[in-house]
Amino acid sequence: MNRIAAYLGALIVSALSIAATADEASPSLRPVHTYSIVARDHETGELGVAVQSHYFGVGSRVIWAQPGIGAVATQSFIDPAYGPDGLALMSNGKTAAEALKSLLAVDERSDWRQVGMVDAHGNVANHTGPRSIGWFCDSANAGYSVQANLMQNSNVCEAMSKAFEAGKGDLAERLMIALEAAESVGGDARGRQSAAMLVVSADKSAPAWGGRMFDLRVEDHAEPLIELRRLLTVARAYRLMSEGDAHMASGDLASTTASYERASALLPGNHELIFWHALTLAANGEVDASLPLFSKAFTLWPSWREIVQRMPAAGLLPDDPELMRKIVAVN
Predict the structure, then answer these.
(1) What's the predicted TM-score (pTM) here?
(2) Cα 303 to Cα 41: distance, rounded to the nearest angstrom
(3) How many helices (DSSP H) and strands (DSSP E) are in the chain?
(4) Residues 68 and 213 in one domain
(5) To 10 degrees, what angle do helices 224-249 and 253-266 make?
(6) Residue 273 vs residues 213, 269, 304: alpha-carbon distances, Å
(7) 261 Cβ partners below 8 Å, 6+ apart?
(8) Measured between alpha carbons, how far is residue 326 from residues 118, 197, 257, 315 in Å?
(9) Which residues contact 74 (CB under 8 A, 6 or more apart)?
(10) Which of 196, 192, 197 is nearest to 223 (CA)?
(11) Per the structure, how many domains does the chain have?
(12) Could you tell me if 217 and 209 are in contact, meaning their C-beta atoms sit under 8 angstroms apart?
């Protein structure tokens, strides 16, 4: 017990000394003990990272990704700079292993760090400093890496790896499955609080605000993984709505309807989804098809009946009084 107390005391003293001389943006020994996975989808080239921890807002500090470049998880006694700096190095041509080696070489506190990286070619690298708190583990595999510290037991990394490799679906789904597997065998020794997922496209030319397939954060929740899975479902539905809009813009009504129906199946009773489906149809001349949907949206959320009348001024519906009369009059 005295050895543990001395160890923790040394860490606290070190962290306080750093905090006294550094601002919030500077590297520090801030403890973010957690489990995470970084991965590349070998079929689509998408890159992703996901995490769960007993730590408020874990996603803002641990997970980093850039379209067509790579993904990083930086944790344990965290230095957030491993995220942006690692991505910068990979964008300049370094592999994940080279980028991680470069950062560790100039980090005087690398013994406390835990990092996982994957680059756009699927090369992976990880590091777990010996002063991470047990149970800790990491595992670098073909196209992905898992890492964990302060776990309930030593089974987490193995469980995540098996689940990710056996998982079906897109990259986001497999990342989700891996997190759920970690939790199923014990997870964080302190319990649960927050979770996050970031999946980006393989398109290196995507602008800084684009290329994000999924960017989900659960900041504080009794069951963060259950909430993260719910948000993943919501995000999928809204992506299907966007697909429907794109199909309508190209004049493909059948595909528009199919996309919106799939979105509604994911979020039954979501009145906003129903309203925008109706609006998209009406704006493109499919008035008869839109009216039953407007009726349903108005029933679920009566305010839509007034809101729809604002759409012509915004250019989202034709300025046609007869059209508006038909829409507003539906029961």
Answers:
(1) 0.88
(2) 43
(3) 12, 11
(4) yes
(5) 170
(6) 19, 9, 12
(7) none
(8) 55, 43, 21, 18
(9) 61, 62, 64, 80, 81, 82, 83, 86, 113, 114, 115
(10) 192
(11) 2
(12) no
Q: Quick check: 190 and 33 in contact, CB under 8 A?
A: yes
Using the Cα atoms of residue 66, residue 70, residue 74 and residue 79 in order, give the sign of their dihedral. negative
Could you tell me if residue 119 is inside a domain?
yes
Q: Which amino acid makes up residue 282?
A: A
156 & 248 share domain = no
d(CA 267, CA 169): 19
Q: Tell me whether residue 204 is in a domain.
A: yes
Instruction: Write out the H or E segment, with its range, that includes residue 212.
Output: strand 212-218
| Domain end among 222, 245, 267 | 222
- Tell me if 214 sits within 8 A of 234, measured CB to CB: no
Helix 253-266 and helix 271-283, axial crossing angle in degrees, nearest 10: 170
| DSSP conformation class of 322 | H
C-alpha 238/C-alpha 259 separation (Å) is 10
Q: How far apart are CA 143 and CA 119, in angstroms?
A: 9
Place of tokens 């979770």: 195
Token pair of 143 as six digits: 């196209």
Residues 6+ apart with CB under 8 A from 3: none
Q: CA angle at residue 229 from 172 to 267, to 5 degrees?
A: 105
- Long-range contacts of the stretch 316-322 (C-beta < 8 A, 24+): 316/279, 316/283, 317/279, 317/282, 317/283, 318/283
pLDDT per position as a tens digit, 92-135:
999 999 999 999 999 999 999 999 999 999 999 999 999 999 99
pLDDT per residue over 170-202, tens digit each? 999 999 999 999 999 999 999 999 999 999 999
Alpha helix ranges (H) inside the chain: 2-21, 59-62, 82-91, 96-105, 156-166, 171-184, 224-249, 253-266, 271-283, 287-300, 303-307, 321-329
Collapsed DSSP state (helix, strand, coil) of residue 71 = strand
Query: What residues have CB less than 8 Å from 164, skipping those under 6 apart?
Result: 37, 39, 144, 146, 174, 175, 177, 178, 181
